[in-house]
């Protein structure tokens, strides 16, 4: 039996956000950042009128909050900011969330638990890239109909963010903080690529990644990741839009910096197109991947020196018999071919549009920077989802899978771990994931308008063990104060793995 570990910790960070202006459907010029306060217009629209019961609950919770806050800040004004959620008896805070539409029907402990451990908000579900090593075994998006969705609606995302902002305002501290042992970033994806992550509202207005990321930071104070495996340059309207969108993002991040985010570009032999080229000995597919990635690197050139721009480079260890084409040296050979193609693009640029480089010397510097950043290739892989199937007939890979499984068997799964994160699906359902390896359903669901719609199944290794309100009660008993005692040290909840 394996054991799972989860914990809640919080840290205050409510610095003023910057938001890009209207990101209209035309997706043309770079937007300038603008200031937006956490009480911006529209927030109150997400608050429902009180009935008598909820008014009583709210008043009681508010009275406790007021008294307890006064106690906490009596000798140290910064204590609330530093300790936040861990100072309170959350049984007595139940009701403070009443009237906030997205939390309707939820307990405050469930909301605090979800916020404290939140690691992913799944805006888009599904991906066409079909990378063999994909942690989530992403499949193409399912068709949307009256019972199914493949993305979160803008209105639900906005309602979730505004709900948390309103709650933070009521509490006087951020429900997301402090966060000691847990992973700090929150991604806006699970099984999709950020180059195609944007939402359209009911009026057809596009809310792109820049705007979504700023709203996320404004609400949670947490950084995010922009992960992409690149995008095709095939001559179809969707791909042209992606190319234009990415050029606009690059202009924006170059001009305004990449604070509070990391931009990850995945270049590896497991991408669907390249993997098929190896398996089918198809040189045309290989060329297609090389051309695609040369264009991606060309487009991203202005970000090459940004500290938060990095590569995700993964391959099998050299000498993995029968896996030729997928090992570290194969990847380095692939880079060389991509760089040759990239050099061609750079050579043409100074004489033509000067889109990214003005001189050949500048092009050389960027290439050098790319080479430097691609030096480290990760060869200890997460053998989950499709990667378990891939090469399972190969003795060496079976050995690697066994080694991977053994490592996890020995490491207990407990609630309080850097590797554990909470996921909010497009329909508001909340899950827990362990190191991108096992996913636990829970009884927590946010009050989204799409709450009754189904989304695609989650991978990998979806378990039947459901996180119940009792598990969360136990967790709070062990981790948070119950009788306004001094704060307890971090403790753990154990759940069976399967
Ligand atoms: S790794 Fe990323 S790009 Fe590749 S299939 Fe998975 S979600 Fe898509």
Give the secondary structure arrangement, pairings included.
Layout: E1 3-4, E2 18-20, E3 33-35, H1 52-74, H2 79-83, H3 108-117, E4 118-121, H4 154-171, E5 199-200, E6 206-207, H5 209-220, E7 224-228, H6 237-256, E8 261-266, H7 272-279, H8 283-300, E9 309-312, H9 328-351, H10 360-373, H11 386-389, H12 395-410, E10 420-424, E11 429-434, E12 438-445, H13 469-479, E13 495-496
Parallel strand pairs: 4-10, 7-8, 8-9
Antiparallel strand pairs: 1-13, 2-3, 5-6, 10-11, 11-12
Helix pairs in contact: 4-5, 7-8, 8-9, 9-10
Iron/sulfur cluster binds at residues 127, 129-131, 134, 136, 138, 191-193, 229.
Structure description:
The chain is of the alpha/beta class. It folds into 2 domains: 1-222 and 410-498, no CATH class; 230-266 and 271-313 and 315-380, no CATH class. The chain contains 13 helices and 13 strands. It has helices spanning 52-74, 79-83, 108-117, 154-171, 209-220, 237-256, 272-279, 283-300, 328-351, 360-373, 386-389, 395-410, 469-479; strands spanning 3-4, 18-20, 33-35, 118-121, 199-200, 206-207, 224-228, 261-266, 309-312, 420-424, 429-434, 438-445, 495-496. The strands form 5 sheets. The protein has a 4-stranded mixed β-sheet, covered by helices on one side. The chain is globular and about 70 Å long. Bound molecules: iron/sulfur cluster. Iron/sulfur cluster (SF4) binds at residues 127, 129-131, 134, 136, 138, 191-193, 229.
Brief write-up:
The chain is an alpha/beta fold and 498 residues long. It is built from 13 helices and 13 strands.
């Amino acid at each position: 039996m394996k054991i799972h570990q989860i914990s809640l910790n919080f840290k205050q960070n409510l610095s003023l956000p910057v938001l890009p202006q209207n990101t209209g459907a035309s997706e043309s010029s770079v937007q300038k950042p603008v200031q937006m306060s956490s009480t911006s217009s529209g927030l109150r629209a997400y608050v429902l009128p009180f009935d008598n019961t909820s008014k009583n609950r709210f008043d009681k919770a508010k009275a406790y909050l007021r008294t307890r806050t006064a106690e906490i800040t009596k000798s140290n004004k910064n204590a609330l900011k530093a300790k936040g959620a861990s100072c309170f008896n959350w049984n007595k805070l139940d009701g403070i969330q009443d009237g906030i539409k997205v939390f309707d029907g939820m307990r405050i402990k469930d909301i605090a638990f979800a916020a404290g451990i939140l690691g992913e908000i799944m805006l888009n579900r599904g991906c066409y890239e079909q990378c063999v090593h994909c942690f989530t075994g992403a499949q193409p998006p399912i068709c949307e109909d009256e019972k199914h969705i493949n993305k979160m609606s803008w209105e639900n995302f906005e309602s979730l963010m505004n709900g948390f902002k309103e709650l933070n305002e009521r509490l006087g501290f951020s429900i997301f903080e402090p966060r000691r042992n847990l992973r700090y970033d929150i991604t806006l994806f699970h099984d999709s690529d950020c180059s195609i992550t944007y939402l359209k509202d009911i009026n057809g207005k596009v809310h792109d990644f820049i705007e979504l990321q700023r709203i996320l930071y404004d609400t949670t104070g947490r950084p995010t990741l922009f992960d992409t495996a690149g995008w095709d340059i095939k001559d179809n309207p969707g791909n042209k839009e992606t190319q234009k969108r990415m050029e606009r993002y690059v202009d924006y991040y170059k001009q305004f910096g990449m604070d509070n985010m990391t931009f990850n570009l995945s270049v590896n032999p497991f991408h669907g197109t390249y993997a098929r080229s190896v398996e089918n000995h198809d040189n045309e597919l290989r060329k297609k991947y090389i051309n695609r990635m040369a264009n991606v690197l060309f487009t991203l050139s202005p970000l090459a020196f940004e500290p938060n721009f990095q590569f995700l480079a993964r391959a099998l260890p050299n000498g993995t018999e029968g896996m030729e084409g997928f090992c570290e040296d194969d990847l380095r050979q692939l880079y060389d071919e991509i760089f040759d193609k990239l050099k061609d693009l750079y050579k043409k640029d100074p004489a033509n549009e000067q889109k990214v480089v003005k001189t050949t010397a500048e092009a050389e510097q960027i290439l050098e920077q790319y080479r430097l950043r691609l030096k480290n290739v990760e060869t200890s892989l997460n053998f989950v989802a499709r990667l378990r199937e891939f090469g399972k007939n190969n003795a060496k890979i079976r050995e690697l899978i066994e080694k991977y499984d053994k490592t996890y068997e020995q490491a207990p799964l407990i609630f309080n771990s850097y590797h554990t994160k909470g996921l909010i699906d497009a329909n508001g359902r909340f899950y827990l994931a362990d190191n991108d390896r096992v996913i636990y359903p829970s009884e927590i669901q946010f009050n989204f308008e799409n709450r009754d719609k189904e989304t695609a199944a989650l991978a990998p290794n979806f378990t039947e063990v459901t996180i119940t309100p009792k598990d969360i009660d136990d967790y709070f008993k062990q981790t948070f104060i119950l009788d306004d005692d001094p704060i307890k040290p971090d403790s753990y909840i154990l759940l069976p793995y399967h």
